[in-house]
Design goal:
Blueprint: H1 4-24, H2 31-35, H3 39-68, H4 79-87, H5 89-92, H6 101-113, H7 122-133, H8 138-152
Length: about 150
């Protein structure tokens, strides 16, 4: 019995270590991962993502408004100040407002339906589709897509 115990513990330790290494491997969040998800998961994922970006938009807008007041938020903040700040690139890049989750999800599904995009990271897909839905110029989108595809080939 005493001889069996050390061998059993060694085997158990080896099993636990191999399980922990297999769990530690990161999952590629790409088109293959995305297409394996359920509709509810996709919508929930995008909802959380866009909520986080909306918070970032708010923070960036507040920082912009504060920058207009020498680092302090002015006593009176006008709608024009906020609108001006939200249209600046440093702030507008976080804007996911007025994009329905279903439309964003369908756009990402369409993006990943193209085999050339399957290995693109989900973040790249989300931003590309967001910009497409926001009406960015076709030439800009084509360049971005080319960059996304070039980055996946590395």
């Amino acid at each position: 019995m005493c001889r069996f115990l050390p061998k059993s513990l060694s085997a158990l330790l080896l099993l636990l270590v191999s399980c922990s290494f297999s769990q530690a491997q990161s999952v590629a969040r790409d088109g293959y991962w995305w297409t394996d998800q359920t509709l509810n998961f996709k919508l929930g994922f995008l909802s959380g993502y866009t909520q986080a970006m909306t918070k970032a938009l708010d923070v960036a807008a507040i920082e912009c408004v504060a920058g207009k007041g020498s680092g302090q938020i002015p006593a009176r903040v006008t709608r024009e100040m906020i609108t001006d700040c939200k249209t600046r690139f440093a702030v507008a890049r976080w804007d996911f407002q007025e994009i329905p989750m279903g439309q964003l999800q369908e756009g990402i599904d369409t993006f990943y339906a193209d085999l050339g995009n399957k290995q693109a990271d989900i973040n790249d897909a989300i931003w590309y589709v967001r910009d497409r839905l926001k009406g960015r110029p076709a030439a800009e989108l084509a360049q971005r897509l080319e960059n996304i595809r070039a980055n996946t080939r590395r």
